Amino acid sequence: MRKKKGIRFQFCFVFLSFVLSAQIQPYDTVFIPQPAVTEKISGVFNLSNSTGWFTGNVLSQGDVDYLRDILNIQFNLNLSQVNTYKPGTIRFSEAADTSMDREAYELNIAPEGIEISARKDGAGFFYGIQSLVQCMAASRNPSGSFALPCMKVKDAPRFKWRGMHLDVCRHFFPLDFIKRYIDLLAMYKLNTFHWHLTDDQGWRIEIKKFPMLTRVGAWRKGSMLGAYADQNFDTLRYGGFYTQDEIREVVNYAAQRHIVVVPEIEMPGHAVAAIAAYPFLSCTGRQIQVEKAWGVFNDVFCTKDSVFDFLEQVLQEVLALFPGEYIHIGGDECPKLNWKECRHCQKRLRDEHLKDEHELQSYFVKRIEKFLNSKGKKMIGWDEILEGGLAPKATVMSWRGTSGGIAAAKLKHQVVMSPGKPCYFDHYQYQPVANEPLAIGGYNPLDSVYAFEPVPKELSVSEQKYILGAQGNVWTEYILNPKHVEYMAVPRMCALSEVLWTMPERKNRSNFLMRLKRRIKMLDLMQVNYSKHFLEQ
Ligand code: TNX
Q1: How far is the CA of 427 from the centre of ligand 1 (A)?
Q2: What is the pLDDT of residues 49-77, one digit of tens each?
């Protein structure tokens, strides 16, 4: 009997210490997203302008430049690079464990020096630098030096796809802001920027072979003003586009921050701007205008061969600009009305023995996937690509809830979760909504983003591995300028970063809010126009 009690006691003790170690400790107050393991060490490391840094020949040039710039720009520090290690230095070393995750890192802040270790070929050093910067922002003395609390951090992300999206079609944002947005993603260890480049209201990427896409398609003769119900428009010419040089600049800027850019070229729907530039692309061949209104429109790409030839030539230029493995082809919200009346589409239906227009959409997407695969790229599309049969290797981005993602994972297809609730950051974030800037609708407060679990309970353990991660989407029908994008994206993007990086047992809502409040120093330093409602929570 006594023995049994002893065992029970021992079990309780082990269980309790496990729970305690998984819990957030008081010193864990500087990071977003919360790292996997943090361990307090006594003492502080005093960092100042006289601290040296030793790259150990393991940091890439990109990481070296990034560190130098961020210390300089954010903290006004000009630390000197030293050629040999000596105590009191910030040191980078290659991880002894070569099987370590490509994005994992260890950060040791000890009284005698700081060490960041990671794999040489991954993003780990960069994330270690981000964590160090977060510590510094939280530990800055008024004199400009830093008393960093000593600790050991061992860290790796939960998900591979940690994304943020930006729609630059409904409203256009200058190149400098795109870079700033990428900087924000990098701060929170997000690694995918989904760039929504084409839509009914504007074509925003230069395609050399088809100059009218931007000469005509990038400009509309007015925009919808205010609420949709008002149907109010101005008559101002509005638009803009990114040249291929600018696109390359963004891709390189993102790559230096270990962020991959996934371009989205919408097809077969959301194609009005392209059709306005080249009317032969639609079923009717009618000359139409770049859209002024928001919504879903009947003029979509026709399924005749000349349209596929055109799209393949467009994609050829696109894929040469984006070295990442994925191309997003949209696939959402494609009305089938014109296809029903089009002789080309009806002939296609008969020739390919397709049952209906849903299968025709599936034919469309499969044909594009084949082309992209032949060029070594993977295709991703919104969950409508499930309708009429999923293309053999497609990755599905689930936006109409999680059911599309669940269905795709059950079919053994990879999935990125981006359900409207709570991943649409164009929805309201605070009530009463009447006090908020006009938004498209919906309600996704910070708390529901933080509580989001990307892996649905409906999936078995073997199906769960198809969930690559999740993404926050910023559609810009009602978001007119960069400051407003920041307001909608931050801090919901911070909550999402913790959903995507941190294991669920390390998440804690009130601790997250506390850290968010500490971390605003960094956002203030960068003059980010974040939404301040969380300060009242
Ligand atoms: C649906 S999400 C759309 C977009 C809109 C958005 C507004 C998706 C694949 N399509 O075209 O901008 O809702 O929230």
Answers
A1: 11
A2: 999 999 999 999 999 999 999 999 999 99
List of residues 6+ apart from 213 with CB closer than 8 A: 203, 205, 206, 207, 273, 274, 277, 278, 314
Q: How close is the Cα of 422 to the center of ligand 1, in Å?
A: 14
Structure tokens at 23: 């819990």
| Cα Rg of the chain, angstroms | 25
From the CB of 188, is ligand 1 less than 6 Å away?
no
Can you tell me the mean pLDDT for 112-129?
97
Residue written as token pair 């500490």: 518
Ligand 1 nearest atom to the CA of residue 270, by list position:
11
Atom of ligand 1 nearest to the CA of 475: 12
Give residue-wise pLDDT tens across range 80-118. Answer: 999 999 999 999 999 988 889 999 999 999 999 999 999
Quick one: DSSP state of residue 314? H
CA–CA distance, 185 with 31 (Å, rounded to integer): 14
- Residue 270 designated active-site: yes
- In angstroms, how far is the first alpha carbon of the chain from the final one? 50
For 432-499, list the strands marked E by DSSP.
467-472
Catalytic-role residue among 199, 200, 266, 426? 199
